[in-house]
């Protein structure tokens, strides 16, 4: 699964938005998204596997894992979107010239 497949799911996109603000525990993410613990574990596994998030143990309690966004993983997504936007701008400018030329 790649980054786009992982982000196709609305729950995982919500998790990414939440983690963009601050790290969270899995239980907090499950509560915030209205998802069961097992379902959240599956979502987090996908996000971990694709490198969108990373986890770390809390030094005070090794049982606790904090999940945080790995922003570098979204660089490829941003580059793709930037390229797509540039192509659309070019197409729209061309279409505008075409329409304006017919109006004369």
Task: Output the keywords.
single chain, 104 residues, alpha+beta, 5 helices, three-stranded antiparallel β-sheet, 3 strands
Walk me through what this model shows.
This protein has 104 residues and is of the alpha+beta class. Helix content is 63%, strand content 16%. The model has no long low-confidence stretch (mean pLDDT 89).
Assess the beta-strand content as a share of residues. Answer: 15-25%
Question: Helicity, in percent?
Answer: 55-70%
> Count of DSSP E strands?
3
Return Rg in Å: 20 Å
Q: Give the strand line-up of the largest sheet.
A: 1-3-2
What is the average per-residue confidence, as pLDDT, rounded to a whole number? 89
Q: Count the helices. How many?
A: 5
Determine the structural class based on helices, strands and strand pairing.
alpha+beta
Question: H/E order of the elements?
Answer: HHEHHEEH
Low-confidence stretches: none
Sum up the overall morphology in one term.
elongated
- Report how far the terminal alpha carbons are from each other: 51 Å
Mind summarizing the main beta sheet?
Answer: 3 strands, antiparallel
């Amino acid at each position: 699964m790649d980054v786009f497949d992982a982000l196709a799911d609305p729950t995982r996109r919500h998790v990414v938005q939440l983690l963009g603000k601050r790290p969270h525990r899995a239980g907090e993410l499950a509560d915030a998204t209205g998802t069961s613990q097992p379902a959240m574990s599956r979502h987090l596994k996908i996000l971990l596997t694709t490198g969108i998030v990373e986890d770390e143990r809390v030094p005070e309690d090794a049982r606790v894992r904090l999940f945080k966004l790995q922003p570098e993983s979204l660089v490829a997504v941003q580059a793709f979107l930037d390229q797509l936007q540039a192509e659309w701008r070019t197409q729209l400018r061309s279409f505008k010239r075409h329409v304006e030329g017919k109006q004369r």
